[in-house]
Design brief:
Chains A, B: InterPro entries: Gfo/Idh/MocA-like_OxRdtase_N, Gfo/Idh/MocA_oxidrdct_glycsds, NAD(P)-bd_dom_sf. Chains A, B: Keywords: Oxidoreductase. Chains A, B: One of its GO terms (molecular function) is nucleotide binding. Two copies of one chain form a homodimer. The first copy, chain A, is an alpha/beta fold. Chain A is about 30% helix and about 30% strand. In chain A, strands 14-13-12-11-7-10-9-8-16 form a nine-stranded mixed beta sheet. The first copy, chain A, has a seven-stranded parallel beta sheet with strand order 3-2-1-4-5-6-15, with helices on both faces. The first copy, chain A, starts with a strand and ends in a 5-residue tail after the last strand. Chains A and B meet through helix 4, strand 8, helix 9 and strand 16 of A and helix 4, strand 8, helix 9 and strand 16 of B.
């Protein structure tokens, strides 16, 4: 039976990624959109999720593509109405609210899928398999991009809950938490806030695994020119390097052939499978690390940022 | 069989509270101390936990009274050595590390007790029982004290991981998370940082329960004169008020008689019972709220603080 899906929040990420992935995925069909300022031709459109849920359009599942700050009320309404829910990353503005959503999904026996699209990048699973058999000495994450290019005029991203440079940085953390065999925790965090903004534009993080392996991360939103989304793992057997956001892999200096990225198609394929059994896939570990980075963060004011 | 206990970190809280409570509790006995700059007459004393664990002194359990920033390595060493562990509040400097400790305790089949002494204040359980049968309209927390009086010269408390005003504030959160029948999550957080310090001296927090009940909290470390540790719950049936840090209760305007506070004795009595079955009691919810308050916090610089 085909899952009847509604998208909530028809913004940039929904148009760039979700619509195409849904169309290409068997077992799921877009039947409605709830969005304040946008609609889709030929698809039932509503201003918000409450209007959608009060209508006679039948939906089985909801994919939330709105900014994280308002997502709790939307997700809660959907879960209370017995709908399966898929969350864009980051899953919410606070940990308390995403833990509450998970408890509610369990209570209502519906699926909750907290997605991390970067974990679907082509090099991630091969890297994970490879690292399971290696001795890891250190990990270095470099995640540097131009915020003006990737988030033009997105004011919410600079507001509390919008996470600033952790909006892309959490993608790196979602990969590292997947590929390393051991858990890790933060030991030092330096956050750089533009003097006119409520969210950091750069961060320097030092983690350690339980057994003491250092994991260093540099996140920066001020990089113009070539963009850097790299994770380098130094192992006793040689270096394992993921570049281009986890889509390319180099092992001991040799490039490996990896499949083409199908991040969002993989997400929707997995969601279809979760919904089939009303299963939950809600790993909030990347958001826990970001939350730790704020709690443990030492703050430095830097030059004002103007869009 | 009596539990042979070691205290790690013989500082202010250990001397003010732990030593007396241990002496007054059946089933547990202090046999060792590990502390950099302190020792106890007649008790085996070591410089740190590694020296203690390498010695031939037999201990069954360890109570960690050190500042939260260095506690992970100590707790991990104790758990790996098969010791039961009791953690002072806050349980650690990050959520990732306390989650890792819980997983390790489970793996080693030993007890982990993440304590919240304020939950043992005399009015807390009566308030919890009462509120289970009432309709709650709003909650207001006022937690205002003089940092110079309560934390004289404690530099670690102003460092990242020391939590600043959340060091006392987390006590209020530990009570509210216990007495309210519903979970809640943060919707707005304002943090006030002295311009020369890395931790907040005051915070104003707005939470909401899942069903929309507002929970407001004002934390302030700048209050001289009378100190305020109050939680007021407005219910349809009348006000329920906890004062004096949860040790006194007023219901519908009438003071209720409550027993004398035995916070730390209750903690050690509970620890003895946990260790008997190698059970875990690790509710990190108060630290999750603090972490959320930092992640969602809007920061304002205020007057420099000098000790």
């Amino acid at each position: 039976m085909t899952i009847r899906l509604a998208i909530v929040g028809l913004g940039k990420i929904a148009r760039d990624q979700h619509l195409g992935a849904i169309a290409a995925t068997a077992g799921i069909e877009l039947v409605a959109v709830a969005s304040r300022n946008a609609a889709l031709d030929g698809i039932a459109s509503f201003n918000d999720i409450d209007e959608l849920l009060a209508s006679n359009i039948e939906v089985d599942a909801v994919s939330l593509c709105t900014p994280p700050q308002g997502r709790f009320a939307q997700a809660r309404a959907a879960l209370l109405a017995g709908k399966h829910v898929m969350l864009e990353k980051p899953p919410g503005a606070t940990l308390s609210e995403v833990y509450a959503l998970e408890a509610l999904a369990r209570e209502k026996h519906v699926s909750l899928f907290s997605t991390w699209h970067s974990r679907e990048a082509a090099a991630v699973e091969p890297a994970r398999a490879l690292l399971a058999g290696r001795t890891i000495r250190s990990v270095a994450v470099e995640w540097k991009e131009d915020v003006r290019h990737w988030h033009p005029g997105q004011a919410w991203i600079w507001e509390p809950g919008g996470l600033g440079v952790f909006d892309p940085g959490i993608n790196a953390l979602s990969i590292v938490t997947r590929i390393l065999p051991e858990a890790f925790h933060l030991v030092r965090s330096d956050l750089f806030f533009p003097e006119n903004r409520a969210a950091p534009i750069a961060a320097k993080l030092s983690f350690e695994t339980a057994s003491g392996v250092p994991v260093e991360a540099e996140l920066d939103w001020r990089q113009t020119g070539p963009q850097t989304w790299d994770i380098r793992i130094d192992t006793a057997e040689g270096p394992v390097v993921l570049t281009h956001g986890g889509s390319r892999l180099t092992v001991d200096g040799e490039p490996r052939i990896v499949e083409e990225d199908q991040e969002y198609r993989n997400l929707y394929r997995h969601f279809v499978s979760l919904v089939g059994d009303s299963r939950i896939d809600a790993d909030f570990t990347p958001l826990v690390h970001v939350s730790d980075a704020f709690m443990l963060g030492r703050r430095t004011a830097v030059e004002a940022f103007e869009d």
